[in-house]
Fold:
Amino acid sequence: MTTQPRPKSRFKKLLVRFATRVLILLVAYVLSIGPMYWKWEDAMMTGDNDTLLIFYMPLMVASELSETFRTLINGYIELWVYA
Structure:
């Protein structure tokens, strides 16, 4: 006889999976600015690619709000710029 998992246990597993996936997507989003930096800078200078500017706007706002985030993200971008 097999026992079915309790509903709370199943819900907790789903919640953990969801939270893990959201965290992975957020980390991938933040790290994506590195290889896209030159395209983003070009869009900032020319104003040609509004979609790219809007997509990365939260990172720019976070950089303005947090000195720690700005230092970390600039250090990461430098790995791509000077590589």
User: Anything to note?
Assistant: The chain has four helices and no strands.
